[in-house]
Amino acid sequence: MSKKIPAGLVLASASPRRRELLLQLMPGIKLHILPADLDESLITSETGTARVLRLAEAKAAAVKTSLPKEFANYPILAADTEVVLKGVPLGKPESFDHAVALLEQLSGCSHQVITAVHLQEDKQAQQAVITTEVSFKSLTKDEIVAYVATGEPMDKAGGYGIQGLGAAFVTSIQGSYSNVVGLPLETVYLQLRQLGYTVI
Ligand SMILES: Cc1cn([C@H]2C[C@H](O)[C@@H](COP(=O)(O)OP(=O)(O)OP(=O)(O)O)O2)c(=O)[nH]c1=O
Question: Active site located where (predicted)?
Fold first, then answer.
């Protein structure tokens, strides 16, 4: 059977984690990284699921309009990750104190990490939202402040990174690990297959 492998892929993301995860799935792929410059401020009435779907689709649409000619036929992959606590999307920390406040809310509780993935090829689009349940141990103020001082929380939804020092706070996880880091690989794999591509 002949394999259909994409000649290249456009990753509509500034996230180094998404780049690394995608290369884990497709080590030889020619990647064109084109971050979308969007307003990602929280809309208070919007659910987490609606938000991640809207943003993942908007990121793909934004880069589609500015693609250099040589990448015009490549599939476009975009994603958005959000941390949701008791139904409320938390966003990313806006300051040191905000990061401390977010981690105080996550302390001793379970929350959901949701990622929407949008894979676009020509007029065909694959979309999915994946949820992972994550539980945190109870945190002291001192450990929260020391963690925020490392700088790790600042560019991450919910103010922590499970792939970094943040792992020290996680007591359990139910669902996809790569989803928490920003790109659920089992979903990207399925979406690529649905477009007819062979990955493995
Ligand atoms: C919860 C959690 C989030 N994150 C990251 C994944 C995402 O990169 C980020 C959520 O913000 P996003 O807006 O989804 O992504 P981004 O701004 O980093 O990149 P882009 O929009 O250009 O694609 O939080 C971790 O790296 N580890 C974690 O444990």
Answer: 80
pLDDT by position in tens, the chain (length 200): 556 878 889 999 999 999 999 999 999 899 999 999 888 887 888 999 999 999 999 999 999 988 888 888 899 999 999 999 999 999 999 999 999 999 999 999 999 999 999 999 988 999 999 999 999 999 999 999 999 999 999 999 999 999 999 999 999 999 999 999 999 999 999 999 999 888 88
Whole-complex ipTM: 0.98
Rounded distance from Cα 15 to ligand 1 centre (Å): 6
| Residue type present at position 63 | V
The CATH class for the domain spanning 9-194 reads: alpha beta
* 100 close to ligand 1 (CB < 6 Angstrom): no
Q: Rounded to the nearest whole angstrom, what is the distance from the C-alpha of residue 150 to the centroid of ligand 1?
A: 17
Would you call 114 helix, strand, or coil by DSSP? strand
Q: Where do the domains of the chain lie?
A: 9-194
Cβ(55)–Cβ(40) below 8 Å: yes
Atom of ligand 1 nearest to the CA of 113: 1
